[in-house]
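Lay summary

Proteins are chains of building blocks that fold into shapes. Our project writes down both the chain and a compact code for its shape. Here are two examples, one after the other.
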Amino acid sequence: MDLLQCDLPGIKKLTSGKVREVFDLGENLLVVATDRISAFDCVLPSAIPRKGEVVTQMSAYWFEALDFVPNHFLTANFASFPDVLQPFKEQLWGRSMLVRKARPLPVECVVRGFLAGSGWTEYEESGSVCGQELPPGLQLASRLPATLFTPAASAETGHYENITWRKFRALIGDELAHEVRARSIELYEYGRAKAAAAGIIVADTKWEFGMADDELLLIDECLTPDSSRFWPEESCKPGGNPPSYDKQFVRDYLETLDWNKSDPAPELPPEVIRKTSEKYIEAFEKLTGRRLLVS
């Protein structure tokens, strides 16, 4: 069953994001990943089959693998969910998780190991990525000389925009900023090495953090095709745009349209929907060595 919207009568919905619906369970939260997909900060009207299951089950896999950094994940096992959620099995099974409550930091923590996307565009123009100077002669898909931490924050437009290290520190405080940067890079380096063993390059990824009392927690999602750029190692050569296992496939299609990247977003054709679903499922199964669990 494709799921574009999730409502659970009697359960309080706290937020409805681009992809996830978050419900208040009192002490904890229920996070439900729909089959919505966003691109260029717009939610598309088309559902991507099995996307919610991929994003949830991949996040659960990584939250457990990266447990050297405290995170908000409790369980994605529907059988252990509270009784009040059991009537909603058809909507929730395989695509939802219970998490600890945390106060999200007002920033996104992007970590880049390869030159791609907006980083490549900026490098072509100025020789830098998010204001950080890089040596000349790098190509699209080149591995960066060192891992870059390039934070972002919500702008007046509602979109996230890159910010300087100085602004990042001003937003969350100097001590916390240093801790978040160190954890972000540590998580990326570990995840990149683990993915490489499966033949996948993690070119870049986005982390989010929150505070539970005085404890810093990794929250939201974790190394999914929504939050990361995944490339097959055997097809990655500097100088070209590698095929991807993530939503870059959708972005590439949208770039061919006469669309101003504002709402309303266009429908996706059936072939793009099918291939995107296949890419998400393949990414999950290659990275985790598991079969996707579906209802």
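And here is the second example, written the same way.
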Amino acid sequence: MNKDNLKAWLQASRLPFFVATFIPLFIGWFLAIRQTGQINPVRFTLVLIASLIVHLITNLANDYFDHSVGTDAGKSIGGSRVIQEGKISPEVMLKVIVILYAIAFVISVVIVLGFQLYLLAIPVLFAAFSSYCYVAPPIRYGYHGLGELFVGINMGPIMVAGTYWVIAGQPSCLSALVSIPVGLMVALILFYQSLPDMQTDLAAKKYTLAVKLGEKNALYVLILFFIFIYLSISALIIIKALSLFGLLFCFSIPLCIKLIRIVFTTEDFLLLDQYGKYVRIIYFICGLAIIAGILL
């Protein structure tokens, strides 16, 4: 693989968004260590590799299937743009998607059967199904305003509680509770990223949640996301699921206020794309706060 090909695949992977996978996995792992004293690095490594592969598959499948119906064509800024820019052909991308699914399947079988966690197969299959059907026909739930719901479930409860389950050997209600703000934050990332593409998504008949809400209502829902995220973390501290170190999430509030001001004063939603990093930074700060609340 030459340098240009490597750059193309790195662009297709959308690495900055992988923080959305690392945070829930480490939260689930550290929570299991705190509750059971079991570290199980081999189990965690397998979960980490499988989860990163599924995240990558989701990104590539999003590019491939959106391209197949022209959703990312024209002025759209969605996706990685590697197909539109001629850096990776759709045929090659599809082959890579199939290979990655096979690898993720093998790792999942090792986890479920090798560690005798048979009921874990249910959330694993749900995650695999959701990853493929996000924009793939015939379901394409991402085209019907359900993207935030499924992404929130997959990268919140399934990743946090699932990681805990693999490490501890059994599920936990506590891990499910701790996963709530995580799921909300990942859903927020997806919701915000859909704002700049509202017009092009509508033209392509991709009815994301933001498109269904309309510009004005979408802005208010953005605020509600932040409110529920901060309230859910605070609730975890109140019930002592997290220590007072969980209050470190407050360091993200100034950035949150800044982002809301930007969103409400920006007339051209296309310009919001350049501020998406703020949402990821807020997520990173809150994720670290939750980890601190678990460990300290």
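What can we say about the second shape? The chain has one domain: 3-295.
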